[in-house]
Write a structure and sequence with these properties.
With 332 residues, the protein is of the alpha+beta class. It contains twelve helices and twelve strands.
């Protein structure tokens, strides 16, 4: 089981039915993490530091979701983590990760993604639980090949730092929440569902996180998307505060409603109205984060400005997307 939301809000208690490993024995936890990832070294930092470590984990084909908390300030070192990419998403606290000449300060707004062949040297402060998404290298590179339509020239390297506030990354985090919720239902997913979830997470990461193949990936994606869908997306993103309907969008781009909905399904794996809702949620979240907590602005005022007129439904959608209430965002 994975505790906590995906990007820096209060953790929730674990549910039964998933792997749980908890120990105060440093050697035992080092061996546990080695089995899940790779050989590494862990050292406690500070006088009198005591380990209180735990791990929750779930497997989804060639993608694994782990919640890892050392419960103390630690230094973690690993050489050439061959075979997988590891997206690290702090749930609280902070840390620093170095891979060669690259260095990233991690926080609830900034994660990291060291890749195969990277030597990792990482310091995590006490109180820095992380969600770590382990993606099989062969599966990621195979999907990259499919998306490009040709074998990739060179080794895939993601930017080490992951900006967890970017809309593209937030969309991937939403996929992650959905996948986690499916796994937490308790039943083992069917092979078809498991493959869909796995491929969705791998594709989402390739498109969301900057890498040496981002330019080629996004050029190919834009080229493959029909002009009508691209135009509808532009209208939604530029006029999200207006009372748009799917009929309005279809008329504006010159196609029928069913054709527009089919285009969104094929190329964006969503519907026009669901895409509009996600854009509006992003706008509300950004505005609440930027607001002065002592100002007279209210959640209702911001939500209604972006087309949310039913407070209960809005609050439920917002909490599902961001793992906290709108008022909690406003007060931070």
């Amino acid at each position: 089981m994975l505790e906590g939301p995906l990007a820096g809000t209060s953790p929730r208690p674990p549910r039964a039915g998933h792997t749980l490993f908890r120990t105060r024995d440093l050697d035992a936890f080092r061996e546990q993490i080695t089995r899940s990832f790779c050989p590494h070294r862990v050292d406690l930092i500070g006088p009198g530091a005591r380990l209180d470590a735990r791990q929750h984990g779930m497997q989804l084909g060639r993608v694994a979701l782990h919640h890892i908390d050392y419960g103390a300030r630690v230094r973690v070192r690993a050489e050439a983590i061959d075979g997988f990419f590891a997206v690290q998403i702090p749930q609280a606290g902070s840390g620093v990760i170095r891979c060669g000449q690259r260095e990233v300060v991690m926080s609830v707004d900034r994660g990291s993604v060291p890749g195969p062949t990277d030597d990792v040297d990482m310091v995590l402060d006490g109180g820095t639980p992380q969600l770590v998404v382990r993606l099989d290298r062969e599966a990621v590179e195979s999907r990259l090949h499919q998306l490009l339509g040709r074998p990739p020239r060179g080794v895939l390297r993601f930017d080490l730092g992951v900006d967890l506030t970017r809309p593209e990354v937030r969309a991937w985090l939403a996929q992650l929440r959905w996948a986690r919720a499916e796994l937490e239902r308790g039943a083992t997913p069917s092979p078809l569902v498991a493959e869909h979830l796995e491929q969705s997470l791998i594709t989402g990461l390739l498109l969301a996180q900057r890498s040496n193949f981002s330019e080629a990936l996004h050029a190919d994606q834009a080229a493959s998307m029909p002009r009508t869908v691209r135009r509808a997306v532009d209208i939604i993103e530029g006029h999200a505060a207006e009372p748009l309907t799917v009929e309005d969008l279809a008329e504006a781009v010159g196609v029928g409603v069913r054709a527009l909905q089919g285009g969104f399904r094929r190329h964006l794996d969503t519907t026009p109205m669901a895409y509009l809702r996600e854009v509006r949620l992003t706008k509300v979240h950004d505005e609440l984060r930027a607001a002065d907590p002592n100002s007279v602005i209210t959640v209702t005022e911001v939500a209604s400005r972006w087309g949310f007129w039913h407070p209960g439904r809005f609050a439920a959608a917002y909490r599902q997307r961001y793992g906290e209430t709108p008022s909690a965002t406003l007060q931070r």
